[in-house]
Design a protein that fits this description.
The protein is about 20% helix and about 40% strand. With about 100 residues, the chain is α+β, with helices and mostly antiparallel strands. It has a domain of about 60 residues.
Length: about 100
């Protein structure tokens, strides 16, 4: 029974090692010149080599997340949409 448990544990650990993620996520914050968050701005990242693009929109705090980007060089475009507006009280901070 102990030998069987060791095999199961080893198999589980090996499965975890093979399941490492190779893709990246891009997380950011969009602010105006006064530091106020811009909500509902359009974010677009485009892989320079392949031309594949991914998009996101900023939330009420001005932040966005674009997950599952394959390794490569990207261009980033932020577009202030007509319904985008500064959000009062939201500010960026450095840790």
């Amino acid at each position: 029974m102990i030998k069987n448990c060791r095999f199961t544990l080893l198999f589980f650990v090996m499965a975890l090692l093979n399941a490492q993620e190779y893709r990246a996520s891009l997380l950011g914050l969009v602010t105006d010149s006064s530091g106020a968050a811009i909500t509902n701005a359009s974010i677009k990242v485009t892989n320079i080599e392949s031309g594949v693009a991914a998009t996101s929109t900023t939330n009420n705090e001005g932040s966005y997340l674009i997950p599952f980007l394959i390794p490569g060089r990207y261009s980033l475009t932020v577009e202030n949409r007509p319904d985008s507006r500064p959000s009062s009280g939201a500010r960026s901070s450095s840790a």
